[in-house]
Structure formats: structure tokens, C-alpha cells
Write a structure and sequence with these properties.
Layout (H helix, E strand, L loop, with lengths): L1 H4 L17 E4 L2 E5 H4 L5 H9 L2
Antiparallel strand pairs: 1-2
Organism: Neobacillus notoginsengisoli
InterPro entries: Selenoprotein_Rdx-typ, Thioredoxin-like_sf
Protein name: SelT/SelW/SelH family protein
Length: about 55
């Protein structure tokens, strides 16, 4: 994802957590939550969601 959007990223924050939590939030909108699905997303899935914003 970073490579795909490298020219558009103004700020990126990694928040360490425990318990296998993996969430992707863009401009305050939660695009993906592993806690809800139980699965890690495919990169293409996240890129498509981000491009649709």
C-alpha cells in the first residue's frame, strides 16, 4: 500500500497494539478491521477501498 500511494501520503501512523488487532483507517474512516472479520485483508482489497475514497 505504501508503494502504491507513496506520492499521496501526507501522514502515516502505526499504533502498536496487542491481541492481533489490525485496522486501517483513512481520514477518520475505518476501512478495515481484522477484529471484525477475523482475517487479514488482501492488499488489493485495501487499495481498491482507498482509491474509492
Amino acid at each position: 500500500m505504501f508503494t502504491h500511494f507513496r506520492h499521496n501520503i501526507k501522514k502515516m501512523e502505526l499504533v502498536p497494539a496487542s491481541g492481533g488487532v489490525f485496522e486501517v483507517t483513512v481520514n477518520g474512516e475505518n476501512l478495515y478491521s481484522k477484529n471484525e472479520t477475523g482475517l487479514f485483508p488482501k492488499a488489493e482489497e485495501l487499495i481498491n477501498k482507498m482509491e474509492s475514497l
